[in-house]
Amino acid sequence: MMIASLALVITASQASFAEIQEPLWKCAMTFDIQGGGLKVLVGKFDLQGPGHVSCVDVLGNREEIPVYVTLGGAPLTLSAGVGQLEVFGMATGIGIAGTPSDLLGHYIVGGVRGSLFIGAGADMALHATHRSFTLNVSVQAVRGWGANIGFDHFIIERL
C-alpha cells in the first residue's frame, strides 16, 4: 500500500516539475524535538520542537528558515512507541523544489529511534506537492528512555 501511494504521488507530481523555473536548491535541516507517549498502532506518541532549514541555490544565494517540527501525533498509524525522548537530528535529501518554502509541510516518514539514557535513530521521509518532490534521510542522537518505530507523519512549519 505504501509503495502504491508513493507511485501515485510520483506520477501526479511529474507534470508539475516542468512548471518549476526557479533555481534548484540544496537544503539541510537541524532539529531538537522532544516528547513521547504510548502507542501500538493506536495511541499517542509525538515529538515536537524547533528546527532550522538552511538552503543554498546553484547561484550561491542562501536562505535560512526557522521552523517548528512535529513527528507523529496521528492517533492511528503503522507505528509503535513508548517512553520519553529528546531527539537531536540533521536531515538532508534529494529532490526538486522551486523555493525553500516549498519544503515546508507534511511528510510521510518511516524510521526507528531508541534510547536507554543515550541512543540513536534514523528516518527516511517523502514530501510531494505540486511545487516539490523530496526524499530525505535523517540521522539522530537520542537521549531519554524509550523507543519509536514505524511509519508516521512529519510536519515542518515556519515559525
Could you characterize what this model shows?
The chain is mainly β and 159 residues long. The protein has one domain (2-158). Helices cover 10% and strands 74% of the residues. The protein has one helix at residues 2-17; strands at residues 25-57, 62-72, 76-97, 105-128, 132-158. Strands 1, 2, 3, 4 and 5 form a 5-stranded antiparallel beta sheet that branches. It starts with a helix and ends with a strand.
Summarize the structure.
With 159 residues, the chain is mainly beta.
User: What's the overall average pLDDT, rounded?
Assistant: 86
How many domains make up the coordinates? Answer: 1
Shape: globular
Helix content: 10-25%
Q: What profile does the largest beta sheet have?
A: 5 strands, antiparallel
Number of helices: 1
Give the total of beta strands.
Answer: 5
Order of helices and strands: HEEEEE
Q: Cα-atom Rg, whole angstroms?
A: 16 Å
The N- to C-terminal Cα distance equals 33 Å
Structural class determined from secondary elements: mainly beta
**Into which percentage range does the β-strand content fall?**
over 45%
In terms of per-residue confidence, which ranges show pLDDT below 50 for 5 or more consecutive residues? 1-18
